[in-house]
Every structure is written in structure tokens, then in C-alpha cells.
Amino acid sequence: MLSCKSLLWKRKRTKNKTKNELRSKTNGIKQNLISEKYQSEGEDEEINEGFSLKASAPSHTHGVRPLGNFYLNSSSVNSRNTGLGNLQTLTDELVIDILGLLGATHLGVLATVSKSFYVFTNHEPLWRNLVLENLSGGFIFKGSWKLTYIATCYPSFDAMNIGLSCLRVRDFYSDYLFQSWLCANLEMKPEWLERDNIIRKKGISVEEFVSNFEEPNKPVLLEGCIDNWAALQKWDRDYLVKLSGDLHFSVGPVEMKLENYFRYSDQVREERPLYLFDPKFAEKVPRLGSEYEVPVYFREDLFGLLGNERPDYRWIIIGPAGSGSSFHIDPNSTSAWNAVIKGSKKWVLFPPDVTPPGVHPSPDGAEVACPVSIIEWFMNFYGATKTWKKKPIECVCKAGEVIFVPNGWWHLVINLEESVAITQNYVSRSNLLNVLDFLQRPNANELVSGTKDRVNLYEKFKNTFEASFPGTIDQLMRKAEEKRAEEKKPSFWDSVTDSKAGAFKFSF
Questions:
Q1: How many CA within 13 A on the CB side of residue 256?
Q2: Among candidate residues 403, 87, 135, the one with its CA nearest the CA of residue 255
Q3: Which distant-in-sequence residues (6+ apart) come within 8 Å of 436 by Cβ?
Q4: Four-point Cα dihedral 412, 47, 8, 275, nearest 10
Q5: Residue ranges of the JmjC domain (predicted)?
Q6: How far apart are CA 147 and CA 366, in angstroms?
Q7: Are residues 195 and 155 in the same domain?
Q8: Domain range spanning residue 174?
Q9: Which of 208, 249, 363, 388 is the least buried, fewest Cβ under 10 Å from its Cβ?
Q10: What is the pLDDT of residues 366-396, one digit of tens each?
Q11: What does the CA dihedral 497, 502, 506, 508 come to, rounded to 10 degrees?
């Protein structure tokens, strides 16, 4: 699962060395948005190119339009530029980054300087960062991040009744700001959900799972293996809220009561909704841990030998439609399983040797640059995979189904509706050598996650395993060497072809 390090809350597409490359690809949205048709001020917007807005989607709060409309407009003025003065030469992203250095008071003052600054300083991600950084989880969402900040810090100030943040600005054009709104309000296109090419299995034996999927490192969707879970019948909103009471769960960079998180998820409309992703849920609420059990296929979990020193390995995951995890590889070279209890999830997976389009990992794998939101990736990069020789594995995983995610596979997940799931990462003998190799890399202290002792995890795990299963590592290494040697041998048909080629040359 995602490490905390990868959960960045500022709107940054990439590190500096790949920023220009990724932005040039992302700017492809401009051509799509040029065809967007606006009627008169205040009327509904219509998006072409096969996109449709969610039923309850509002028009852009401040009237921002895509830049393509500026070139088709008889007006020669973009109020974005006139209101910024000398700062108009900066990109919108850089303007937002600079404003992100300011506090709430300075943003409020700057909003009175011009209409342009009003729009920029009311950009919701700026206020989201202020809430998450300054208020931790001690807030109740009020429909927008700015109103949430004001209501929490200045409870006597009645921001709701004075129409705060509702001014619409004419002739303001910005692809960057418009895309943020668009990604928050778009429905998933039907064509993004059509492909379902994963292998589905029901009632297979553990031996068949290991030989056909775990050892060859291939994904599979398993049906019927969690039908006995009490969680499938019990885990609705009311039950979870009552059971958790005043306990706080990990939601991105903050801790929140489950009741407050659901209040947030009911109201929020943003491109990267906060995701409840808690690794200690079973310790906090033991009954939750007792109402599910590890499916029979994944019960060899060798990190368990470390006891309390094992890295984080299991999470409860809750999120509204549109929430999810952008492309990543699971930590510590582990494999994983993910079981949907309520709702449904769209999965896109690429094998270890295929980097997804729009994704730029650093050479050491410590950082990954990718589009800001999942919808943005679908809009700008998903179509390219249709022509790839190695197409991604895709599926929609529904309640009661479990997906096996092999080690090293890139994967993206988006909730199609409010969803509750359990996921666990694990190490089996099939993957043990990969994990040991990962844990002893030179930069392991940067790559290893889920534990406070990153440096010594390799020695601890290897020594503990060898004490419990002496000689097993050597056996696995010999088996792996034999497999590599076998793979290098020419097949029967290759041998026949070579012999014919030699005979042809001799006779010639």
C-alpha cells in the first residue's frame, strides 16, 4: 500500500527534473476543453468529448473557464492576467505554490487586491493544506475547506450567511484551475470501465493458486473466498460509527473520528478526496479484527515471524466515490490481497517491466511523479494504453471479491462508489528472495516503509526466518538458479530451427 511519504497534499505533479516533461503531456487536456460550450453566465455547462458531469455538479464556483475558450471569445482580455500585474508571467501552478507559503490571514488580505487574486487565493487546495497542517483532525467539514478553516478558527464569524467565496469573475481563463474543478466533478466515462481482462477464479485449491498465480507473479480475482466473513453483513456506516465511537483513524496526514470522516465524504467534491487508510484499526477496535479472516490462499505470512516488530501490513480502507490510490508499487517488495466489503473499485495494473504512461519513477524508486489525480490520469493517459502491446490488467472488484496483487506490479485503484475494504501485504516463500533482496539494497533506509527500524529490518527478518526454517533460503536460492538456467535453454522448436539453419548453410 502507499507509504505515508507518497501522500503529498500540495498540488505538485512531479519533481523538478520531470516537471516539464509531465506538464507537456498533461497539457493535452487543453484541446479537449476547447470544445467545452458555455451558455450565458450562470447557465449550466456542457462538456463534449464524451465527458459528463456528476448529477449534482455545480458550475465552477468562481466562473473560471478553460483557456481554449479565451481564444474563441470576442473579448481580448483575460482578467487572470490583468489582475496579477507583473506576476502574470508566472504559470498558474507557480502562483499557487507561492500562495501556499502564506497563512490564512495573508490569503484573506490578498483576496481583496484584485479579482484575479480573489480567484487564486480561494483555490480550495490552499485551504485544504491550511486545515490539515494547522488543525490536524480537530475539525468538522463545512462544505468547503475555506469555510471549514474559518468555522474552526473563528467560530463567532458567520461566514455561511455572508456568501463568502461565492463571487463569480467574468473572463477568467485558466486550464490549471479549471482542470482541478473538472476532475472533481467528472463521472467515470463508460469506456474507462469496459475492459475487464483479469482472470477470475472460484473455489480453486491453494496449490493451484500458488502454481498458477503466486509463483508466476500474475494477478487474479478470487470469488467466494470471503463469504464467511461477518464483516460482509455487519460493516455498514451505522455499525462502524457505533463501534469506533470517539476513536480516531488515519485519514491521509491527520487522525479523524469515523463519524466526522463520513460527514466530510458526504459533502466533499474535490479531485483527491481524503482516504481513510488505517494500519492500526484492529488494535484500536479488536472486534473489527475478529470479524474477518485471512483467505486461505494468503496464510503463509512470513513477516509474522517478527511479531510486534513486523512492518505495517494490514489496513481498513474507506472512501467516497472518486477516492483511491494513484499508481504505486506496494512496499518492501511484498505481495498483497484486497477484499471489498462494501462498494466497488476499478483496478488498473501494469507488470513490473512496464511503467504506466504519465508515471515517472526516480532511478532508485524512492519517488514517483504522476498526475495529481486519478481522473486526470484517465483523461490524459488511459487512451494510450489501447494501442500498447502489453495492455494493463483491468477489472472492477465488487463486494465479496478479492484481488491478488503480485509483488512489483504497478496499480491504480479508484472507488466507483463509497467503499469499505480490507487489504494486507504479505511475504510467502514464493516471494521471500525478492523481499530479502529489496531489504538489503544500498538505499534501503529510504525505500523500506512501515517500520521505525528501516536499517536493521533485513538482518532481523533473515535471522528470524533462518532460525525457524534452517536451510530454506539456500534451497530457494538453488531452485531459483535452476529456474533461471532452465529459462536460458533453447526450447525444442528453437533447437529444430537452429539445426535447420545450420544444415541450410552447410548445403549452400
A1: 25
A2: 135
A3: 458, 461, 462, 473
A4: -60
A5: 283-443
A6: 36
A7: no
A8: 64-185
A9: 363
A10: 788 888 799 999 999 999 998 898 899 999 9
A11: 50
